[in-house]
């Protein structure tokens, strides 16, 4: 299987899989039409295509967002049902919230109830713990989500057009520090193969989600997906950074570009990003304009680049080695809403005799106190 070979190893089952009412004994029942041979058969199909597992869905309220049974006051019962069905990954939503006089808990408490149930189930059954994905955007989960889950949605539901993607990238540019090996900002499901995204927009979408270490869930109709889309989804060099076993952190902006730094603009998110990987420094250059644009940066604007060093340049989309960068790099004519993804590796000292002596003039000073440009030396 092409996608499995690239590392996609879950089949994801979302809302609407159940009957509208629980059984007489109180258990969730799989839809008798959609799963006429039983939902365990779904797990059997998953095993036959050699995925690692399947993802299940439920809700912290009375009902799911589509009106099927939620797990409020049935957390352990439902967790046990999901485990019996063969699931070990739970996406947990936040619709149909009980009245305050009943629940007497905030957003944290609603997720803690299921987190406790999953922990108890693992302890009593001997099975490994569920992966727990928090699927709601209220309550600033970046501050507490890691206590209870492995990922947390950061924005409202995504849509398959550029404006929606730009909004997600903008919002997440300010919370990248929340992602590490122990928890991930979830930027929502991938929209490649849906809507009217251009090829370059689809590449930008996938690059940003992957390099920000978001979970990567394909939502397209796989029977109609194009080879072009599959080519993007299976970019091994991009996926290797998303799945880096040494570095779990996200890329972050080092310069916003057309906007002043730290400006929130849902139409024009940050353009210059970088981060660490086990094999070098990763860069994402994003053209947020509606026309081709050159994107230029000083290497040391990234905190992961050493001054006085040259760097080999690997293009993660053309899969080519593009020479050596010294001090600066320019990506020419990046397409509208397009992206450049680079991996820079230390290639030794930069050439001798470069002027000015510093790649950045600010505070560049000789040991005698003279600054670059002949400014007056510091007073003794």
Automatic annotation (TrEMBL):
Q: Please list the reactions this protein catalyses.
A: Hydrolysis of terminal, non-reducing alpha-D-galactose residues in alpha-D-galactosides, including galactose oligosaccharides, galactomannans and galactolipids
Q: What class of enzyme is it?
A: hydrolase
For this protein, the record's CDD domains field holds: GH27
User: According to the UniProt entry, what is the EC number of this protein?
Assistant: 3.2.1.22
Q: Name one GO molecular function term.
A: alpha-galactosidase activity
Q: Alpha galactosidase C-terminal domain: which residues?
A: 269-344
Q: Which UniProt keywords apply?
A: Disulfide bond, Glycosidase, Hydrolase, Signal
Q: What is one GO biological process annotated to this record?
A: carbohydrate metabolic process
> SUPFAM superfamilies under this entry?
(Trans)glycosidases (SSF51445), Glycosyl hydrolase domain (SSF51011)
Work out whether the entry's keyword set contains Disulfide bond. Answer: yes
Coiled-coil segments: none
Gene3D superfamilies hit by this protein: Aldolase class I (3.20.20.70), Golgi alpha-mannosidase II (2.60.40.1180)
The text of the family note is:
Belongs to the glycosyl hydrolase 27 family.
| Protein name as it appears in the record | Alpha-galactosidase
Q: Which organism is it from?
A: Pleurotus eryngii (Boletus of the steppes)
